[in-house]
Specification:
The protein is an alpha+beta fold. The chain is 48% helix and 17% strand. Helix 3 crosses helix 7 and helix 16 packs antiparallel against helix 19.
Length: 827
């Protein structure tokens, strides 16, 4: 019997080529999209799952709650928190620290600028990254040791055995301590004690060289390691004992903070420590998707993206199933005599249902084979678009292949279930008498499925338009500064006097257009928070403060709205360690927060407690107001900021280079750098690169999203094309009669186009409110955002209508131009 079913199915496929092609093509494309999306989801969900023994490992994430201001969450933590948890909470089994810095790594006379991870000596015992050489328990038994990756071993030592080789690491200043005068260079000669496999892309960790934080090269000062309010203590991890509940541990953290941190004693703030600082435990294996906070080690993913891609995959498969259902019920009259004869010869309804479901599953399996072939061809392109080395290995990924097989069988069952019920339910007598199948299934259902297909396609189309419009808006919006042609140099490895001498040399070089120092630069993600007191207001407020040289604003083209710029010739324009009165600039947002216009803000004062923890207050006097400029990205509001010239905290150099002669300018920068810092590799990049990084993830996902939208529309149109073919064929006699009574070909075409326009118009009524609801919430994540212009909705709906017309027009025009004599001979 199965052999008979198979032969019958293959004959039907061969006899009805258009029907078979449309269904197989739709299912092939739909299944290929599902495979691509499943591969993406598997990759996103695999982050750090491959590291053994991390089931009970958690990242300690910090939140700062400034009085009167919204809390600020970050993925890093103050350095003493994990150690205090280990010492005071019995549920905590181990604590691990990780900090990473770009350091100079020297091998003989060769210099490399690499990311160096400074970690606790027990790091490799807790986070068991795979080793190819070295003894895990004793990797960091000595302070001056290092573990490097296989690629780093090849880069540093070539074919020589890396174990026992020496590297010079460091070149960063120790900072953040009030008792350190100037810059203390932290560097050491370390011995390679271990080699690990290169880290794959699906991990939150990064870097090719690890050294212990007991090494001399560790740039974090002891002061910063004891600071409970520091936002630069690196990342902290705790391993809980088996059976310990992370939520119960979190409930004990406020009391732990209060025991160890007294804001009134250290900062003069009459609050408990737990009212200022909070901590949250996030499972190590969930960090990639669960952490959308500042300061992630690597770019995080998001559950919203995972859910969105999964939903798109399901919707595309449903559209393909709708095609199958629609076409199978529409062409039921073609199979009416076959079904009736089978029933007359004794076939039971259950056997017919099995036959038709078998045909749909066979079609789905054939589509799966073609889909996998399509995936093989397009997978490299897809991987490049995602920026991830996504691959499909049939032998290693056999569980995934089983899931693909199960998905295709499910698609076959979903697509064929309703047609099987309809086709198997014909009455032989009426079907044989009329050679037809009555209504050939529910016409209402077919129209409903077409409506749903186009509602999904239109909704996705609107979303794609809005996403790209928002990205374009953010990219071209007025930033309030000139970001083009600016090179950023990290000079944290130089003392203050050398930094200033270097900047003077850069300013006098004819190949360059100016240079300045600052403690941060736009788009670098650093946020210098400051607690200030505003006269006449109770409590304190949180502002951002920005250390910079006086010529920072002129180099970046930031407008001065009122007052004057800072100058080294004014004594109080320079903020020194013992200063009690300092002149500052503020931005327009700060003036608004104070309740002043830019002109009225001049001469006004506010106060700041010294960051050293001393009780003396610093009085700030506003001498100028600048225009607002985008400091981070367009997702965030511009925050109140004050700008002060504090030489101790300016270690980033901004150099403006001419548009013509960039290569000569870069050569000049490198030459000047090596005159002042011959033993430190230069760390430079263009500011444009930081700006563009903001949009990479959105653009990658937007491009893929648009492709899936186009595929959804393509599959829907395939079904509409087939449905139009069968519909116009069934109305041949009606059309012949209409033409006989004087109807023109144009009238016939318009009649048929209107028949298929109604479902698309109804689909718009469904898609528009749903798309508006979700896109409105998505746009709320952007401080500077576009409005949901009705043109996005009208444009997507009109495009769907035009596509539907083009799809149907070929059939409509052919039937409308036919000779009515032939039409009346039909049947």
């Amino acid at each position: 019997m199965l052999h008979n079913y198979l032969i019958t199915a293959l004959r039907n496929f061969s006899r009805h080529k258009l029907y078979s092609f449309i269904n197989i093509a739709g299912l092939t494309v739909g299944l290929a999209c599902a495979v691509f999306i499943i591969l993406f989801l598997r990759d996103e969900l695999s982050y750090d799952k491959w590291i053994p023994g991390t089931e009970n490992l958690y990242r300690v994430e910090q939140s700062i709650n400034p009085p009167g201001q919204p809390p600020s969450s970050m993925s890093y933590t103050a350095f003493p928190a994990p150690d205090a948890m280990l010492a005071e909470l019995p549920e905590v089994k181990a604590a691990v620290h990780l900090e990473h810095d770009r350091m100079t790594v020297a091998m003989g006379n060769r210099q490399f600028l690499d990311q160096v991870n400074v970690v606790s000596p027990n790091f490799f015992r807790i986070i068991r990254l795979p080793l190819t050489a070295g003894d895990r328990p004793t990797l960091f038994a000595q302070p001056e040791s290092a573990v490097i990756s296989e690629s780093a071993a090849r880069k540093y030592f070539g074919s020589r055995p890396p174990l026992g080789q020496m590297l010079k690491v460091g070149g960063l200043c120790e900072f953040g301590s009030p008792d350190i005068s100037g810059c203390v260079i932290r560097e050491a000669t370390v011995m390679v004690t271990g080699v690990m496999r290169d880290l794959p892309h699906n991990t939150q960790l990064s870097g090719d060289i690890f050294i212990p934080n007991t090494s001399t090269a560790d740039p974090m000062s002891q002061y910063r390691k004891a600071d409970w309010t520091s936002s630069s203590g690196g990342w902290g991890y705790v391993e809980l004992r088996p059976g310990a509940d992370a939520r119960e541990v979190e409930a004990k953290l406020p009391a732990l903070i209060d025991r160890n941190f007294d804001p009134e004693k250290s900062q003069g703030i009459a609050l408990r420590g737990s009212q200022i600082v909070g901590y949250h435990l996030t499972p190590f294996r969930d960090d990639h998707l669960s952490t959308d906070k500042n300061g992630s080690l690597t770019p995080p993913g998001s559950w919203a993206t995972v859910y969105a891609f999964a939903a798109i995959g399901v919707l595309i498969l449903l559209i393909a199933c709708f095609n199958f259902t629609n076409l199978a019920t529409a062409r039921a009259m073609v199979r009416a005599r076959e079904i009736s004869l089978r029933k007359v010869l004794g076939a039971r309804r259950g056997q017919l249902i099995v036959q038709f479901l078998g045909e749909s599953i066979l079609m789905a399996l054939m589509s799966l084979i073609l889909a996998l072939a399509l995936v093989e061809m397009l997978l490299p392109v897809y991987a490049r678009m995602l920026g991830k080395p996504i691959q499909l290995h049939y032998l290693n990924d056999w569980p995934l292949l089983l899931s693909f097989l199960g998905t295709s069988v499910l698609v076959g069952l979903l697509g064929g279930f309703y047609p099987a019920l309809i086709l198997s339910g014909y009455r032989p007598a009426s079907a044989l008498r009329t050679n037809a199948a009555g209504q050939a299934g529910s016409g209402l259902l077919r129209n409903l499925l077409v409506v749903l297909q186009f509602a999904v396609s239109i909704g996705l189309g609107i979303a794609a338009l809005v996403v790209f419009a928002q990205i374009s808006f953010a990219r071209t919006a007025d930033l309030g500064l000139n970001k083009d042609g600016v090179v950023i140099i990290a000079a944290s490895g130089l003392d203050i006097s050398t930094q200033q001498s270097l900047v003077r040399a850069l300013n006098t070089d004819a190949a360059l257009k100016g240079a300045t120092l600052s403690g941060s630069v736009p788009f670098d993600g650093q946020d210098w928070g400051s607690t200030i007191e505003i006269p006449g207001e109770p409590g304190t407020s949180q502002f951002r403060w920005f250390p910079m040289q006086p010529d920072f604003f002129s180099l970046y083209g930031i407008r001065l709205l009122s007052g004057r710029a800072l100058s080294e010739s004014h004594g109080q324009d320079v903020w020194r360690e013992d200063s009690t009165a300092v002149n500052v600039l503020i931005n327009r947002a700060a003036a608004k927060r104070f309740g002043y216009s830019p002109q009225n803000a001049l001469g006004k004062n506010f106060y700041h407690d010294s960051s050293t923890g001393k009780v003396n207050r610093v009085r700030f006097t506003i001498v100028g107001v600048t225009g607002d400029f985008v400091f981070e990205d367009n997702r965030k509001e511009i925050v109140p900021t004050y700008y002060a010239y504090r030489p101790d905290d300016t270690y980033l150099i901004s150099v403006r280079v001419p548009a013509a002669g960039v290569s000569q300018a870069l050569s000049a920068i490198d030459g000047i750098w090596h005159r002042f810092a011959p033993s430190i590799a230069i760390d430079r990049h263009f500011l444009d690169a930081d700006f563009e990084k903001q949009f990479l993830a959105d653009e990658q996902q937007g491009r893929i999203f648009s492709i899936f939208v186009a595929i959804a529309i393509f599959i829907a149109c395939l079904g509409l094309f087939g449905l139009a073919a069968f519909s116009t064929e069934r109305r041949t006699k009606e059309i012949g009669i209409r033409k006989t009574f004087g109807a023109r070909s144009r009238d016939i075409v318009l009649l048929l186009l209107w028949q298929f326009s109604v479902p698309v118009l109804v689909a718009n009524l469904i898609a528009w409110p749903v798309a508006y609801y979700y896109l409105h919430h998505w746009l709320e994540g952007y401080a500077n955002r576009i409005s949901l212009n009705p043109l996005y909705f009208i444009g997507a709906g009109a495009a769907a209508l035009v596509i539907a017309w083009l799809t149907v027009y070929a059939h409509a025009a052919r039937v409308a131009r036919a000779n009515p004599v032939h039409a009346l001979r039909y049947e």
